[in-house]
Amino acid sequence: MTGVNFASAGSGFEDQTSRLSNTLPMSKQVNLFKEYLLRIRNIVGEKEASRIIENSLIFISSGTNDFTRYYRSLKRKKMDIGEYQDSVLRIAQASVKELFSLGGRQFCLAGLPPFGCTPIQITLSGDPDRACVDEQNRDAQAYNSKLEKLLPALQGSLHGSKIVYLDAYQAFKEILDNPAKYGMVVQ
């Protein structure tokens, strides 16, 4: 067995994000993981199933759709971006804790990319120059900073876990800033 994927493109940490896009929210993805655990235990037994899960890398890359939806939702009137970031982080943290309780020990959480540079966000901004939406990119960086600071404390609270942060923002920004370096032609 080399891997299992429970991801759902277009989903988010928040259930509401996924309801709007008819995708599986993080909570449902975790439930699918639980179902998988039952099946694998029936196939290989409890001890081997635990070994497999403990040695697996659980990769979580979510949140972009939550934030892109936030900018167009009524939620923006109810809470500022900092409060919303904290709300999403609480869901992310709860997801990791639940996966840990199910036997997961190794986690990689990706930060947000510069989603203010996605075509949909640029289009919705109405900018005739078609430039990245700087405010949204700053918000992504602020969220990422909070996530990166949260992970060591989360790891410390989950004895035996290893949790690493993946800087998706810088990886994507590097490609956006230097497309030719990566063999992409800009016209």
TrEMBL record:
It comes from the Eukaryota. Pfam families: Lipase_GDSL. One of its GO terms (molecular function) is hydrolase activity, acting on ester bonds. Keywords: Signal. SUPFAM superfamilies: SGNH hydrolase. Belongs to the 'GDSL' lipolytic enzyme family. This is Uncharacterized protein. It comes from Oryza sativa subsp. indica. The lineage of its organism: Eukaryota, Viridiplantae, Streptophyta, Embryophyta, Tracheophyta.
